[in-house]
């Protein structure tokens, strides 16, 4: 396999000139730059990291597990991770688990069989006891969803309880009385798992309701995470004896589905029904009325998770174990 | 490395029982199933495909190049590709080129260095002469964007000219006179490339305008592909001496950006300005007014492209070279 030295010899320049050209640095004579590029092409020279990969020392590949890449929250988080990874010449294997515990375990094998250098869990369906043994095979970072105990694995997320508490207080202050709640559940083929993230959000909701002396009704609890789920939730709400006057959802997609159906049925928002989303996805300000929602700092979350991963791969001083980013409520016209 | 035989011996069952457990088949005694799982765990047994990978015969990995994973069109096409790939135990490396010709070439190295079994181009920035040599290293499939000549490489796309022709005729029939046009340009760091896809759409537009004896004005030509671009386009339009009464865009994101700004400026849609999107993304029916757009069959495109790839990898009879899927206009309330 040709080396920098071979390229330098063929191009008739110094080795440092070759490395300046490779790294796109300034102050290289244009003729020399051309000669180096030509020599690299003729020799079939591979930059260092590729050559290293061929020698099998590392894959420069990181697996990222998400439950649904078509959810704008996940495509944005993957985009942010990819941006940080690319700066250090790492690539991502996209692991779209579709909420399946089996698929999640299938992708964890990538770490065990050394097909990736590290693995980031942006979704998490299995119990931590099932995941934990894989930490023996390489670095794992957790982002967004999280377990109760992470055995030294870095976690990057938001304070879910606080975010939902603030959203609930916002509705209570506005005078809404019959507040419905939608748990952000990913229905797997086996059963619906209430993750710690979903539990914590629900706790924030219950705490605010309790403090205000408000009652919760079982019939006002819904499950869902997609646009279609939102549409169905509205249809269920219409049939209730005591109709909710507001609903808290776990995703802007669910909220958008509810709004679309409610408007189609002639309901006025927020007069007949107030709606709170979660995420602050790009469409939150495009729909009408603009959606009150919790802003998830998705860029920062994705970047921070990947930075933790790169720190682990460089075997530097260990990154912080738990990172809770701010997730403010953005009050708009749907409440 | 342990084999099925080792697992069978340790679990005290037959080899066929082990393989039935591995493939989740019915009619296996629950005790035996547990014994097999336990034996697999204790021996560190890897299912066949992983073991094959470790022997280096294949990577079971396919690279997919997209320009922006946060564009719902691309996340949907990747999702569809992933679904087909997963059925055959293939994984995707997500290659987010951000419209950079350099990044595109960087990812093509994955094929050359045998780090992936095949590569699908859902975005394409470089000239075909630059890409073509990589077909020596493994199968390539083209999807969405395409070159004028593809030298035997399968292409899956829609008839771009026809789609834009029909959208233009729709506006003309509605009586719009001053029709603006936005080219779906990905601005790279170097320059704005007008791809064959963008050229063909523009041809469809020009043909319909010519047939109707309508004039095109240079000042009514815009560039852009994102929500933000759409917002900026509206601001430019406002300043024109002859304001357009309709605009054709190359993406629902651009259309949504224009609608958001137009409404904020007090314009009535479609009375003051008619808007046509492209793609039929999920938010097209959520915004107000609902967006007239061209439905890109993104599920079918993604699936067909991956099926072509799997056929090439199986070295079966060659898949069809050019596939043009139907992309009907969906007339809604924005026109």
UniProtKB/TrEMBL annotation, chains A, B:
Recorded superkingdom: Bacteria
HTH lacI-type domain location: 2-56
Keyword Transcription among UniProt keywords: yes
Keyword terms: DNA-binding, Transcription, Transcription regulation
GO molecular function, a single term: DNA-binding transcription factor activity
Record bears the keyword DNA-binding: yes
Pfam families: LacI, Peripla_BP_1
PANTHER family: LACI-RELATED TRANSCRIPTIONAL REPRESSOR (PTHR30146), NTD BIOSYNTHESIS OPERON REGULATOR NTDR (PTHR30146:SF136)
Name under which the protein is recorded: LacI family transcriptional regulator
Organism: Shouchella clausii
């Amino acid at each position: 396999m040709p080396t920098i030295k071979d390229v330098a010899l063929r191009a008739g320049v110094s080795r440092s000139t070759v490395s300046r050209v490779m790294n796109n640095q300034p102050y290289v004579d244009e003729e020399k730059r051309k000669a180096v590029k030509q020599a690299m092409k003729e020799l079939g020279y591979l930059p260092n990291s590729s050559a290293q990969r061929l020698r099998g020392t590392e894959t420069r590949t990181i697996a990222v597990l998400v439950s649904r890449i078509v959810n704008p929250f996940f495509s944005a988080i993957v985009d942010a991770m990819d941006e940080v990874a690319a700066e250090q010449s790492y690539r991502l294997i996209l692991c779209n688990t579709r909420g399946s515990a089996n698929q999640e375990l299938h992708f964890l094998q990538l770490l065990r069989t050394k097909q990736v250098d590290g693995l980031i869990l942006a979704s998490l369906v299995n119990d931590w006891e099932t995941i934990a043994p894989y930490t023996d095979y390489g670095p794992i970072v957790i982002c967004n969803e999280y377990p109760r105990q992470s055995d030294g694995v870095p976690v990057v997320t938001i304070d879910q309880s606080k975010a939902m508490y603030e959203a609930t207080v916002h509705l209570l202050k506005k005078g809404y009385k019959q507040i419905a709640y939608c748990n952000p559940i990913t229905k797997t083929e086996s059963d619906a798992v209430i993750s710690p993230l979903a539990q914590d959000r629900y706790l924030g909701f219950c705490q605010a309701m309790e403090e205000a002396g408000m009652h919760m009704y079982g019939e006002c609890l819904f499950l869902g995470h997609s646009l279609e789920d939102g549409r169905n939730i509205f249809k269920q709400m219409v049939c209730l004896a005591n109709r909710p006057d507001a609903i808290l959802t776990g995703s802007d997609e669910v909220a958008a589905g509810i709004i679309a159906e409610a408007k189609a049925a002639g309901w006025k928002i927020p007069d007949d029904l107030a709606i709170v989303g979660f995420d602050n996805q790009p469409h939150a300000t495009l729909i009408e009325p603009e959606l009150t929602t919790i802003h998830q700092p998705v860029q920062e979350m994705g970047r921070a998770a990947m930075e933790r991963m790169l720190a682990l791969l460089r075997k530097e001083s260990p990154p912080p174990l738990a990172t809770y980013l701010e997730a403010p409520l953005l009050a708009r016209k749907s409440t």
